[in-house]
Design goal:
Length: 543
Amino acid sequence: MYDVAVLGSGIAGLSCAIHAARSGASVVVVTKGRLSMSATRYAQGGVAAALAAGDSPELHAADTLAAGAGLCDPEAVAVLVREGPERVRELETLGAVFDRIDGDLAFAREGGHSLARVVHAGGDATGAEIERTLAAGLPAGIEVREGWFSFDLLLRAGRCTGASVGPPEGGVVTLEARHTVLATGGAGQLYAVTTNPAVSTGDGIAMAWRAGAAVADVEFMQFHPTALHHPTMPRPLLSEALRGDGAVLRDEQGRAFMVDEHPMADLAPRDVVARAITRRLVERGLDHVWLDATAIDDLPRRFPTIWAASRAAGYDPTTDWLPVAPAAHYLSGGVCTDLDGATTLPGLWACGEVACSGVHGANRLASNSLLDGLVFAPRVAAAIAAGKEGPDPTGVLRDVARLGGEGSPGPGPAATLRREALQRAMTTRAGVLRDRDSLGEAWDALGGDDPQLAPTPTEAAAAELVNLTQVGRLLVAAARRREESRGTHNRLDFPEPDDAWRGRIVHLRGQPDRFVPLDAAAAGRPGAHLPTGDPLVAGEGRP
Ligand code: SIN
């Protein structure tokens, strides 16, 4: 029996493991790939943190809240922006080398940020540097199981007591732990075109949902506007930092179109840019627009990863415009947590992309994802060390905790699709732009109202497909229900945000999905969102 089992080995998983081990806990890290295979490694832009002269946590919070389109939890955002700078410095102490100019940290600007605040490493290889640093910083006592797949959470007397896991050679064994931390990342593999690695199959969300934990905000899949339009998968990312350094999006006639779309033009929040591009692709029958980065000084040195990927695809970004199109990139929702990463299921914690703490709302601000892992993973470790046993009504759980977290574990939908068929249905029917008909078709493709039921398979690839199917069903169910456009959820049939939908769609196994309105007056006041009436009644039906 371990004190802490961490499932996943990206920035959140490794940060949590390091902090938990430092507090004296026995820790095992279970990762289905190699230690370095997470989405963290692919992150280019960097870590947003208020470290620059003239910046402040308040300015960072204001940008985060604006990008989140009314669905951020202000208290969660306050934690993120206040603790972020200290966590970045801690990474440096651990050995991460961030780019500097004349000895001072260098800051990039990205979409939605009112100033340059993104620290980066190796030009555009920030994730790789952080992953390297954390893997090297793992204390000797931590057990690491590489190539081990996590199938399901173990439950005893209403508590999570570990996970059923499988070694690389096959089979399933139980891994008992007093505390289990989901740090399994996102679900970009729901889509045929994604910047996420093949391991991003929504495993943690599906496991948590099967075990009866609350899941929310999964209709908010963020699409990165500028993935290189090229058959390589994952799609090579062309960081927003390019636009921060002066790159410009151009349509098929060479027109710089973002000036017509938003006061921040090419540096508008990511959802605005992805929507503007996709509208043009659909209306004009195009498969890409262009990113003109030819005006950037010294691009090969400042963006070596992008330079190499572009050259490998046959482009010279110093002279050629680069073909780009949106690609699935980051799931803003996930397993509901309080501000310490506690879920609605005692003994189960979540941090990083798998979690929904309220920091991202309907659209994550650029380069807030590495920061999210860096800030909230140590909070999980600290809360466990302090003996915390269950969630508080903070973060997203301020709104949803009282829905009750005890669903009925049991069989889930079977994998009736091949991964490619699922990805095709999600991409064409539940992508950047959606409507009632397209989402209905996606729903039918994912099993419809009467999905075939089967236990989780005991073979990793089949289990991944079940996980993708389940997360896809949650995403599509919420997207069908949310009859408005907000953040990264764009309904062609409901093109405007609607205040009545300012709330979360919460999924609990064995119960109908619930809409939980947010209390606008409660911004930033701990506990003030707690419903006064019966939340099951208050939250039901169309708002
Ligand atoms: C980018 O560099 O554009 C991606 C950074 C992020 O997803 O936050």
